[in-house]
Amino acid sequence: MARKKIALIGGGQIGGVLAQLAALRELGDVVLFDIVEGLPQGKCLDIAEASPIDGFDVELKGTNDYKDIAGADVVIVTAGLPRKPGMSRDDLIEVNSKIIASVGEGIKQYAPNSFVIVISNPLDAMVTLLQRITGFPYNRVIGQAGVLDSARFEAFIAWELGVSVKDVTAMTLGGHGDDMVPLVRYASVKGIPVLELLERKYKDKAKAKEVMEAMVKRTRGAGGEVVALLKTGSAFYSPASAAISMAESILKDQKRVLPTCCFLQGEYGVKGYYVGVPAVLGSNGVENILEFALDAEEQAMMDKSVAAVKSLVDSLK
Ligand code: TXD
Description:
This is Malate dehydrogenase. Keywords: NAD, Oxidoreductase, Tricarboxylic acid cycle. One of its GO terms (molecular function) is L-malate dehydrogenase (NAD+) activity. It catalyses: (S)-malate + NAD(+) = oxaloacetate + NADH + H(+). There is one protein chain. This protein has eleven helices and 14 strands. β1 (about 5-10), α1 (about 15-25) and β2 (about 30-35) form a beta-alpha-beta unit. By secondary structure, the chain is α/β, with parallel strands linked by helices. The termini are far apart. The strands form four sheets. Strands 3-2-1-4-5-6 form a six-stranded parallel sheet. The chain has helices spanning about 15-25, 40-50, 50-55, 95-110, 125-135, 145-160, 195-200, 205-220, 220-230, 235-250, 295-315; strands at about 5-10, 30-35, 60-65, 75, 115-120, 140-145, 170, 170-175, 180, 190, 190-195, 255-265, 270-280, 285-290. Bound molecules: 1,4,5,6-tetrahydronicotinamide adenine dinucleotide (TXD). The site of 1,4,5,6-tetrahydronicotinamide adenine dinucleotide has 34 residues, from α1 and α4.
């Protein structure tokens, strides 16, 4: 059986980590594309020269030519500018729309059967644009936001409770903006509600709620927290890990349930917009969108987040 092929469009900070992770996990051969000459070639050579040490058998090719992505099974898009301190994700819409439009043309022409995972910001608008340009079916074009936002929430919970990150489950829904919806009610440690564990830890319901709210707030601002520390760009290790888990679920038909930016056609009362919801990712891309009842407070937060996504997407030219 031929090896799978993963094309990465954008060879910057996230693109480089994506290439390394895809190689380390032997997901398939890797093509790293960028418009900057030498950058993807240099990164691929560097990673490939570690293969005897790490022991992975995949080919890595850096390129400035879309022809090289031909036959890709999965394409992950990080092309575009990242945030600088003081910027919101939405400030990137003009410049990144132009970039995503050209990337969409390249993918449409050279990898017409691929599954596409968009990472570039503002995420909800860029995935919408890329789907429009390629015309690919909705199950083949998705965005990465929720896996990372959820992982951040899970990490904060694990650190607060002094338990392994492996035993924490939590999820965020909605758009990839400050209005995202971290689901407090379903956050658990091996199925035990996090709120109950906090109440037992602090022996005080009000304090437990306060600690939970602080974690929710930190989750919403987690991208900005990293930007403020780095000063020159945004998070890149964790977004790459998040997208790789989505790609792996598709390539290996794992059918993992991952919070994914999916095109909704009535689910959660939303029609015609990309929004983050739990989805089953397998060899057909988005194979199912899982719906469940939100309580009044969660629904109100979801409505607010969806409204923000709509106004952003409607501003696309
Ligand atoms: O969770 C998420 N979705 C995100 C998204 C989390 C963090 C950052 N996220 C966004 O990803 C961020 O706001 C940016 O819009 C993208 C990429 O972030 P990265 O940190 O990798 O940015 P870099 O290092 O600037 O890399 C971008 C590369 C760079 O090498 C450019 O030369 C290249 O994109 N680029 C292009 N590649 C292909 N085609 C075109 N037209 C192009 N223009 C620039």
